[in-house]
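Help wanted!
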Amino acid sequence: MASVSELYDVGWEEMRDKLRKWREDNCRNSEQIVDVGEELISEHGSKLGDDIWIIYEQVMIAALDCSRDDLALTCLQELRKQFPDSHRVKRLSGMRLEALERYDEANKHYDAILQDDPTNTAARKRKISILKAQGKSAEAIRELNEYLEQFVGDQEAWHELSELYINEHDYGKAAFCLEELMMTNPHNHLYCEQYAEVKYTQGGLENLELSRKYFAQALRLNNRNMRALFGLYMLAGRGTKENKCSVKAVEEMLESMQITMS
Amino acid sequence: MALLLDSSIRMWVVLPIVFITFFVGIIRHYVTQLLHSDKKVDLEQVSDSQVLLRSRILRENGKYIPRQSFAMRKHYFNNAETGFFKKVKRKVIPKNPMTDTSMLTDMMKGNLTNVLPMILIGGWINWAFSGFVITKVPFPLTLRFKPMLQRGIELLSLDASWVSSASWYFLNVFGLRSMYSLILGQDNAADQSRIMQDQMTGAAMAMPPDPNKAFKSEWEALEIVEHKWALENVEEELMSRDLNFGTFFSQDIKSTMF
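Answered by r_m:
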């Protein structure tokens, strides 16, 4: 199998920079990270200096995603050797246990971290995701609610809660979570669009009106958002009064479909 | 008035003072890092600060959510009986600097690492390099500065712009600040002027020890906020312009790694 550097003709610095970019953008392209990271660690480990630790962490999480337990274990062992008492490393070993479906042991790990440091948010969130992985969504929702009562500002958690509620078809509460997200990120078109979709699903005249407004807002923030355009089109179609909005939306939709097909 | 200074002054006084200041600053930075003790964070404090943040966000960005949701949240915070800011009273233990051990040690450490070296080295330079002028500051100064800047030189007719070594030392302390941020990165402990600034503003903002007051002020601020929905006319605004699809779909998106 040809190595990444041969396939794409890149040096180790570019691979390292690419990993950093993925880290900063929070991408979840685990297979690519494993390919690039594994080669970087094995061939160019000594040249990386202190960067290697964070790359170990990044590659380990990606390896867990791809079921590469061997690679995950090596990374974890290196990190454990270097940072023996670190909560961050403990969390990673907990994650590995989760990946192996040894949930009870993982829970013990996280409880140990929380006893030491009650404000550690990462351990709490992992416990909630264990519940989610085990399919206990009602408990996961309850735990997440308690978590959010204390850490009201955690946006990742609000988003996760909205997803859990949508899965349970509790659209009212999901809308509440998305409103929190919209308040903290008023210029993020994705949250507006998700909120509009939830309102659309809820149904009822008031919610549909709200939904139309938020689809329009999402489009105003980013006119490439196809889902928002489609949502607007769907709503415009069922409007009881003929207004400029519906006609124009239909026109725009047809225009965009023409462009994508050409 | 033009004075010609011995060039050995430049070599043996000006440059050594610069180096001394610089290295003492770096040493101070590392010593502070070594002596630095981790601050233990209280869960309640974290929680409170986040709640206050949420309330502030509600005030600022409340106009992006529907009127009813805004009213619901405002009610949650401000309701006369069950509102969060009305109901929650935190027990406040006033932190007496004399008896609170952690704050006392912090203060001592701060003094030790910053003020003490400055006094010592300032005094040593004053003693070692006294009796002659070092340099001339490029702007004219009044006679009032003479006793301050020309320690050890009793010449009545000398221009106030000619300064002695002690003032050159102080000039360095403040001037090398940007050098430190270049070399040690932002937020470094060698930055004395920032520390002095902190000491002055620290008296003004004593918020963490008193969440009750913060809650009260946040309650007042939230009471007066009105909800002006930003999405009132969004559809008309959207329709008034073209969506401009133009060049969006003309190229393939590259999906390879590099």
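OP: Thanks! One thing I noticed: Chain B touches chain A through 31 residues (CB under 8 Å).
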